[in-house]
Specification:
Length: about 90
Amino acid sequence: MAINGMEDFQRKCRLALCQWYQRNGKEAPSYEQTYVVWCCKTLKNYKCLVSTSLPDTIYAEYTHNGDSGETYGDAYEKLSNYAYAYNEYPFGEF
């Protein structure tokens, strides 16, 4: 896949997530229902986290290897979200 800058990569990642839903038999979001959570470029490589406004908690991570020209995608489902108190292990004092 040829990448022509950050905006192009983000657009392609959002489209790829829509296609992932279709391939996996899920109700596919529209492009407008997708959004970029985080994206960066380091040296020749891009990485982008994409999610949707759907209530299913699916998000995807796309990585583009600038040397090989290959792009990899991983899809995840959020299982839980919890908070640690300031002094709780593993983030507090030992």
